[in-house]
Amino acid sequence: MPEVKNPIITYTGISQKIVYDDADSTILDCSIANQIPHLHECGGNGRCSTCRIRILEGHSNLSPRTLKEQQMAEFRRWDPSIRLACQCYVKGDVDIQRLVWTSSEINKLQLETIPEGEAEERAIAILFCDIRNFTKMAIENNTFDIAHVLNRFYTIIGDPILFNNGVIYQYIGDEIVGLFGISGGTREKNCRDAARAALGMYYAIEHLNHMELVDFDLRIKTGIGINFGKAFIGHLGHPKHKQLAVVGDPINTASRIQAYNKEVDGRILISEAIFKSLPEGTFEIGREFTTQFAGHEHNSKLYELKGFQETDMQLELQRSLEYLFTNKDEFAEKFYTRVFEKAPGVRALFKKNMQDQGRLLTHMLGGIVYSLSRPEHLETGLAFLGKSHARYGVTKDHYPVVLSSMMETIQEQLGDECSPKLIEAWEKALLYITNEMKKYTN
Ligand code: HEM
Ligand code: FES
């Protein structure tokens, strides 16, 4: 088919049309050049699949799949309409739809690695979190919007699962179940992710109690149990309604560990399997318990998780995101005002709309915090960002200016929520990000 000069790419959903005028650009490059938010966690390397798009019209107007894309499509059982934006070039008009946007959508991509119609044994960490007496509390309190509180609750307890590369398996009544490591990862990483998610949930609930529910004289109490072990995972069920199913003793045990909180008035209990998966001295542990769960012939040892002994950078960053980006536009505006005050010459490097630029920046920062739980893609993602910044005319000298402006804006935005641990975590993270980017700058 003859190539069309300057084809049009239509982004369905945002109804934006752009002219494709550089044959060396992939669709991902076009999105970035036109300030269209488009996830690209691995930086266009055909490894993460977050840039995937659905081709709604003009499928034959794209370059064929590259080898990387072909392998990914086969492994994840994609139909031909799904393409990797970082791997395809345009020869004629196309209508596309970006498919991955939220953290929950990224995490769900792991489900594509699970077999259809059969179960496979995988070693995973399992987290059960239950709200005590929530239903009773909801019935007794007509003074506030229970639907609002419920939605807030599910968001704040779901986010820590998603932030830590976990998958929300199911909601059962007042309980949420998260799985960590269903598509791989080391035992240590998966257990650490689950423990970090548990602490993130606990802190978020405490914050909700102290800030939002205090006027209602209400207090949400949670019990969290975590376990690690081999479970059977598959997409099972009726041929027309298959769903993710995870079965095995470690799952039941995680549920019982959660329930054991009630007996000991605990908050977070971890199994010995979790405790032993991380180097000694990692966890701050409170009480220890020994119990025999129904159906088990052996005793189980449980540990009360209080925190990490050393500051966990990811936990601190995750905790701060909600307060930091409550008003993303305001954050970005304050940040860029500082940068331009410190280095007025830098202003000329920004050619496009500054409000859109600010949104891309905060989205990217949130994404980086989030992808710290998938470090395999982070380095290539930052390399890509570093190379594009070199093209924008950014030099090594600019990085310290951006770093100090960012730290000042973070401290201002966090206000009372700011703590030395948070500052330490953000400094460490930003130093890592900018050092990685700087490697590609003159
Ligand atoms: C924490 C480090 C930084 C992050 C996360 C970041 C993030 C971003 C993002 C997401 C974009 C949108 C385009 C793209 O994705 O390539 C962008 C563009 C840009 N950034 Fe950065 N950036 C950082 C550091 C810097 C530094 C040190 C400078 C130098 C002053 C800079 C100057 C620019 C410029 C000039 C553009 C292009 C704007 C335009 O075309 O109008 N950035 N940045
Ligand atoms: S696969 Fe395209 S950005 Fe990662």
UniProtKB/TrEMBL annotation:
Which PROSITE patterns has this protein been placed in? Answer: GLOBIN, GUANYLATE_CYCLASE_2
Q: Where in the cell is it found?
A: Cell membrane
The Guanylate cyclase domain sits at 125-258
Membrane topology per the entry is: Multi-pass membrane protein
Q: Which UniProt keywords apply?
A: Cell membrane, Heme, Iron, Membrane, Metal-binding, Oxygen transport, Transport
InterPro entries this protein is in? Answer: 2Fe-2S_ferredoxin-like_sf, 2Fe-2S_ferredoxin-type, A/G_cyclase, Adenylyl/Guanylyl_Cyclase_3/4, Beta-grasp_dom_sf, Globin, Globin-like_sf, Globin/Proto
Using the record's annotation, list all stretches that form the Globin domain: 307-442
Q: Where does the record locate the signal sequence feature?
A: none
Q: Which Gene3D superfamilies match?
A: 3.10.20.30, Globins (1.10.490.10), Nucleotide cyclase (3.30.70.1230)
Task: Specify the domain of life of the species encoding this protein.
Answer: Bacteria
Q: What protein family is recorded?
A: Belongs to the globin family.
Query: What protein name is recorded for this chain?
Result: Adenylate/guanylate cyclase domain-containing protein
Q: Which organism is it from?
A: Christiangramia sediminicola
